[in-house]
TrEMBL record, chain A:
Residues 87-145 form the Prokaryotic-type class I peptide chain release factors domain. InterPro entries: Pep_chain_release_fac_I, Pep_chain_release_fac_I_sf, Prokaryotic/Mito_RF. Transmembrane segments: none annotated. Gene3D superfamilies: 3.30.160.20. Belongs to the prokaryotic/mitochondrial release factor family. This is Peptide chain release factor class I/class II. Pfam families: RF-1 (PF00472). One of its GO terms (molecular function) is translation release factor activity. It comes from Helianthus annuus.
Automatic annotation (TrEMBL), chain B:
It comes from Helianthus annuus (Common sunflower). Its EC number is 2.1.1.297. GO terms for biological process: methylation. The keyword S-adenosyl-L-methionine applies. Residues 195-255 form the Methyltransferase domain. Signal peptide: none annotated. PANTHER family: PTHR47441, RELEASE FACTOR GLUTAMINE METHYLTRANSFERASE. This is Peptide chain release factor N(5)-glutamine methyltransferase. Keywords: Methyltransferase, S-adenosyl-L-methionine, Transferase. GO terms for molecular function: nucleic acid binding; peptide chain release factor N(5)-glutamine methyltransferase activity.
Length: 248, 366
């Protein structure tokens, strides 16, 4: 089994990750709060143990829940490593046999499953398990940004600062206080990407409508979306589900 | 990734040159003796990635080596896995990439794949001929990859290892997390004296040295002179000489006079039952020090010795963590501590590793 997992992993390009579920996950705000208030796990993490937190419904595929002011997705992405890990199940690829001193196989691959959403992230390209754990966690964060949607009210919408930070300077609503534009390699990009996807979902996939809200031309927003592979993929999947043409 | 490893290596080597490399063999070309792998040298060997890039080869010749080595790795197929659960071709290919990362100054040049640059000269940290030899040792003699390159990536450390010293395992990385969790809750322990018994490369001791407070100290003990030298090398490389001291001796021997004063005791002692040694994967059984693996008939000899020592050496409230062979040994230890040392220990726990094997026993001195 370990071998198969490694094989399937090696076939993917370094940045890719196994994803479940395929559709965006919606979370109830109170569920997230529930976890934070009850999170007394202050140690670094519990290996291979399920955290005490579960979805209140016990079902990871609950239908989308709309509640105004829901920013549960943002909280997840902005959460500290410790808190996020306390919601996760983590294991290396299960290897047969006793492990430990018996083995020298450099099985340093790490797999992290976020229990509330069922999203799985893994990393195996580094030589140390420790670093693979950090990469898997960073990947989990970016997957949460891509997959967990919060509803927004278009009537009263103003883009949050983390979204303004990833916009190009020519945006008419972006002030100099937002600093230089943050690119996809910056860890803060995930939060901006998440807010952007929330907006694009709210405008039913229309890039021109989203661009208006952001003070950008349609072309400029398209270029931003296309600058990150995972962002482009998420937007195009959503557009495809609405019968729209993919951005190229 | 390749670059960050090399960058880190070069930072470390440049900042620590005067202290560490001068005492080894910084600028001497690698002679055939440095490729031999009997644990004889009183001075630890410098890991490949820390050696100066004083050799050269043309890109064409380097690519020839790569193709040859890939073919050799592919020829293994699943034969090692079938015979003794050893590595398959795929893992060997990954190791080959790491060997190239460690030995070529600009490894990316191989992936650029521009034919116009075939006579470009590439700088190497070992002679090309030695790379052939090293890869042959890896495949034909099943010499562990970590001994081939002279290091193991463990947690956020890159530790020097060589024949005669156990290669630290990924499972053991968790020991440091366990200690980190404990000292966060019990701040007093952070300032105390910690002991890593059977330190080997120094991995756990160095890991703990980095999570303790300024006043915290670690004594890393090993009976093997090779291990003591390698652990010292690693301690110095991370600039922890003032915090982690390395002592030679058997288990508690070098700690006499410290009874009841130790805040934390950790160990990954030999725990494999003697009868299992001959069936071990070739990389382990043929090349790693049996002293660090064989735990006696039931694998428990050293673990029991450590338990008994913990009762007398730990201060009240002191913490211990031992790595074991798995669930049976964990349960045996807990039973032993509860029955034989009743009231000496409290809060005994069995903690699983990342693969879900019940791996560690932890607890506190009452």
């Amino acid at each position: 089994m370990a071998l198969n997992l490694m094989k399937s992993c090696a076939k993917l390009c370094p940045k890719t990750t196994t994803l479940t579920p395929a559709t965006p996950v919606h979370l109830r705000r109170f569920q997230i709060h529930f976890n934070i208030l009850n999170s007394n796990n202050t140690t670094s993490f519990s290996p291979n143990r399920t955290s005490s937190f579960r979805c209140a419904t016990g079902d990871n595929n609950t239908p989308p829940v709309s509640s105004s002011g829901n920013d549960g997705g943002r909280e997840l992405v902005a959460m500290s490593d410790e808190k996020l890990l306390s919601q996760c199940e983590m294991d290396t690829y299960k290897s047969s046999g006793p492990g430990g001193q018996h083995r020298n196989k450099r099985e340093s691959a790490v797999r992290i499953k976020h229990i509330p959403t069922g999203i799985v992230a893994q990393a195996s390209e580094d030589r140390s398990q420790h670093k693979n754990r950090a990469s898997a966690l960073a990947r989990l964060r970016s997957l949460l940004a891509l997959k967990v949607r919060s509803t927004i009210d278009l009537e009263t919408y103003t883009p949050p600062p983390e979204l303004l930070q990833i916009l190009p300077a020519k945006s008419t609503i972006r002030g100099s206080e937002n600093g230089p534009q943050i690119g996809p390699n910056n860890p803060k990009f995930a939060l901006g990407m998440q807010a952007l996807l929330d907006l694009i979902f709210a405008v039913e996939g229309s890039v021109s409508d989203a661009a208006k809200k952001l003070g950008l031309s349609t072309g400029a927003l398209s270029r931003l979306i296309l600058s990150d592979d995972s962002l482009r993929q998420a937007v195009n999947e959503f557009r495809a589900s609405k019968g729209m043409k993919p951005l190229k | 990734m390749n670059l960050s490893i090399l960058a880190r290596a070069s930072i470390l080597s440049s900042t620590l040159t005067s202290r560490t490399l001068n005492r080894t063999i910084p600028h001497r070309p690698i002679s055939s003796s440095s490729l031999s792998y009997t644990p004889t040298s009183p001075n630890p060997k410098t890991p490949l990635f820390l050696r100066p890039p004083i050799f050269t080869a043309t890109l064409t010749d380097l690519k020839k080596f790569q193709t040859w080595a890939q073919t050799l790795a592919s020829s293994v197929g699943s034969s090692f896995t079938e015979s003794d659960n050893g590595p398959c071709s795929e893992i060997l290919h990954r190791e080959l990439n790491w060997l190239i990362q460690d030995s070529v100054q600009t490894p990316d040049i191989l992936s650029l794949n521009s034919d116009s640059k075939t006579d470009a000269v590439v700088k190497l940290r070992a002679e090309l001929g030695d790379l052939y030899l090293l890869w042959k040792q890896r495949i034909e003699e099943r010499r562990p990859f970590q001994y081939v390159v002279g290091c193991e990536h463990w947690r956020d450390l890159v530790l020097s290892v060589e024949e005669g010293v156990l290669i630290p395992r990924p499972e053991t990385e968790l020991m440091v997390d366990l200690v980190e969790g404990v000292v966060k809750e019990r701040v007093g322990l952070k300032r105390g004296l910690w002991v890593d018994l059977g330190t080997g490369s120094g991995a756990i001791g160095i890991g703990i040295g980095r999570v303790l407070g300024d006043e915290g100290r670690v004594v890393a003990v090993d009976v093997s002179p090779v291990a003591v030298q390698v652990a010292l090398f690693n301690v110095r490389r991370y600039g922890l000489e003032d915090k982690v001291s390395v002592k030679q001796g058997s288990w508690f021997e070098p700690l006499s006079g410290l009874e009841g004063q130790i805040s934390g005791l950790v160990s990954n002692p030999p725990y494999i039952p003697s009868g299992h040694i001959s069936g071990l994967q070739a990389e382990v059984g043929r090349h790693e020090p049996i002293l660090a693996l064989d735990g006696g008939e039931d694998g428990m000899s050293d673990l029991l010795h450590l338990c008994n020592g913990a009762a007398s050496m730990l201060e009240p409230g002191g913490f211990f963590a031992f790595e074991t062979n798995g669930e049976d040994q964990c349960r045996f230890l807990v039973d032993h501590m509860e029955s034989v040392h009743n009231n000496s220990f409290c809060d005994l726990k069995i903690v699983p590793d990342f693969a879900g094997v019940q791996r560690f026993v932890t607890g506190f001195r009452s």
